[in-house]
């Protein structure tokens, strides 16, 4: 199945490329998604929280760059996700390309999606509907983030270093000054500095709110096919969030 999407952000092309390929920075813009790590081979791992009524489930997925052309502003991502209960799985080959359009950047996304299990009961229309809603949420968050950050400007020129004037040597008649608090034993090392208070610990990243399935899919279909519906949203969330890699 093929899903084609397009969106625009109101920033220049080069800045859009830099921002949209910074996965750690943009991952919080996708509700329910959180980046958990990347291995030595460039495979990114993430989790998706999905909520339906009082039930919250966590699913896992991976993605990696298959291609990344900075000159052409084009990236190909290989992504996939699986339901731990066996309700279905999906893999996607995502091609994202960017082009300049005045003072904004247009991002075109082509997704070749392969699905298996109960999730395959959904038609392409349903998948495109949910995908469009999730992508809209992502773009809205991204626009707010870009608007809040000033564009990087030119670095100020550093002032030339002033020449060091050597201190005058003591005259033979005057002995060199020795501080009164200097240790009698010149070879004794000074005691190591010990802080009088504990250093503050780094704050943990805030937990992401789960994706509300009832807010992105038609209730009659969700009610009839709850397990595959959850997997569908997980798959589409994975696709949308990893598009920006």
From TrEMBL:
Biased segments, Low complexity type: 174-192
Region Disordered: start-end pairs: 148-193
Keyword vocabulary terms for this entry: Membrane, Transmembrane, Transmembrane helix
Pfam families: COXG (PF06240)
Keyword presence, GTP-binding: no
Transmembrane segments: 225-244
InterPro entries: CO_DH_gsu, START-like_dom_sf
PANTHER family, alphabetized: BLL0334 PROTEIN (PTHR38588)
Protein name, entry field: SRPBCC family protein
Species this protein is from: Actinomadura barringtoniae
């Amino acid at each position: 199945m093929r899903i084609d999407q397009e969106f625009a952000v109101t920033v220049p092309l080069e800045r859009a490329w830099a921002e949209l390929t910074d996965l750690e920075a943009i991952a919080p813009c996708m509700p329910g998604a959180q980046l958990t790590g990347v291995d030595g081979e460039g495979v990114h791992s993430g989790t998706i929280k999905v909520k339906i009524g009082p039930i919250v489930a966590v699913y896992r997925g991976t993605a990696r760059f298959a291609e990344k052309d900075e000159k052409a502003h084009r990236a190909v991502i290989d992504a996939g996700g699986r339901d731990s209960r066996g309700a279905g799985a999906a893999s996607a080959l995502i091609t994202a390309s960017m082009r300049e359009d005045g003072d904004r950047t247009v991002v075109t996304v082509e997704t070749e999606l392969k699905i298996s299990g109960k999730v395959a009961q959904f038609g392409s229309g349903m998948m495109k509907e949910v995908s469009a809603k999730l992508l809209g949420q992502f773009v809205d968050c991204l626009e707010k983030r870009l608007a809040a950050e000033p564009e990087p400007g030119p670095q100020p020129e550093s002032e030339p270093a002033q020449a060091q004037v050597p201190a005058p040597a003591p005259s033979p008649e005057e002995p060199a000054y020795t501080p009164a608090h200097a240790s009698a034993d010149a070879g004794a090392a000074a005691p190591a500095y010990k802080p009088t208070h504990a250093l503050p610990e780094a704050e943990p990243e805030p937990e992401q709110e789960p994706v509300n399935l009832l807010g992105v899919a038609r209730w009659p279909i969700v009610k009839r096919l709850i397990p595959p519906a959850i997997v569908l949203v997980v798959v589409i969330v994975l696709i949308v969030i990893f598009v920006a890699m």
